[in-house]
Amino acid sequence: MTDDTHTIRSGGLTATVKAQGAEMCSLRNDAGVEFVWQAEPAWPRHAPLLFPIVGRLANDELRHKGKTYRMTQHGFARDSRFHWAERGENRCVLVLEDNETTRALYPFAFRLTAIYTIDETGLDLSLTIANTGEETLPASLGGHPAFNWPLQPGLPKESYTLTFANAESSPIRRLDGGLLRAAVEATPVKDTVLPLSESLFVDDAIIFDRIESNAVRFAAGASTSTGPWLKMSWQGFRELGVWSKPSGARFLCIEPWRGHASPAGFDGEFSDKPGLMHIAPGAEERLSFRIEVASS
């Protein structure tokens, strides 16, 4: 154990979390399967937390009460060092609070708490945003975990699918210059199944802003016997992003979101941005997701 990372374990499952960004950087089972992308050059992150925005603001500018602040894509939490509030055998707690650096970018008081808990079949991440200030806190929050794709070396990437808990017939959204296009597109999901291929991501992420499911399974083939698989489920999140790079990058991001990029053409007050939570002084919002994994 170092001050930079902490590993939690239960049964044959281990997870390692970094203080930098409160980022999970490994989820491995006793069969030696690493489920998390190892931040290779194609995308040098593992599973960043997105706060206080998800996606991008127009011109990377946040406007509040006549002032303009620089806020780059996905916010600052992923590049901030959290402090350890608890470091146990199967649980760890990390906290980020507003400070001089964050207030120069985001003029609000907050406390963001990330609680990782592991058991024999999976990992839970519980996220709480508390408004510690005296004005309404406008914020978004998202997960951005990247998983190895394929999970089993030697399997073609095209053998993998995402299978949703419910049919996903609503249109999807796409991005232009990092901003949400006004036009919608037909969903690539066939009933509950999204066949995966690199070509899906030529036009950037697939954004489900009317998601019907609260769980999705990432696996090769239709049965659990075709190598390692994982299932993500979530509570409190209202959108889902699915993303990779269409250039041979061997990862797939499955991203529960509460919020999304600014719509193209929106350039108003940050508090008026669509998709935000508005947290009253003294109140808090809790969101969570779980990653269940298995070798076969």
Helix and strand arrangement:
Elements: E1 5-10, E2 13-18, E3 24-28, E4 49-50, E5 61-64, E6 67-70, E7 83-87, E8 91-97, H1 100-103, E9 111-118, E10 122-130, E11 137-139, E12 141-143, E13 146-148, E14 160-164, E15 175-176, E16 179-180, E17 193-195, E18 206-208, E19 215-220, E20 229-235, E21 239-243, E22 251-258, E23 277-279, E24 284-294
Antiparallel strand pairs: 1-2, 2-3, 4-12, 5-6, 7-8, 8-9, 9-10, 10-24, 11-23, 12-22, 13-22, 14-17, 14-19, 15-16, 18-21, 19-20, 20-24, 21-22
What characteristics describe this protein?
GH-type_carb-bd, six-stranded antiparallel beta sheet, Galactose mutarotase-like enzyme, LacX, isomerase activity, single chain, 296 residues, Beta-galactosidase, Chain A, domain 5
Descriptive report:
Helix content is 1%, strand content 41%. The chain has 296 residues and is mainly beta. It has a nine-stranded antiparallel sheet with strand order 7-8-9-10-24-20-19-14-17, with no helix packed on it. The mean pLDDT is 96. InterPro entries: Aldose_1/G6P_1-epimerase, Gal_mutarotase_sf_dom, GH-type_carb-bd, LacX.
Short description:
With 296 residues, this protein is mainly β. It has one helix spanning 100-103; strands spanning 5-10, 13-18, 24-28, 49-50, 61-64, 67-70, 83-87, 91-97, 111-118, 122-130, 137-139, 141-143, 146-148, 160-164, 175-176, 179-180, 193-195, 206-208, 215-220, 229-235, 239-243, 251-258, 277-279, 284-294.
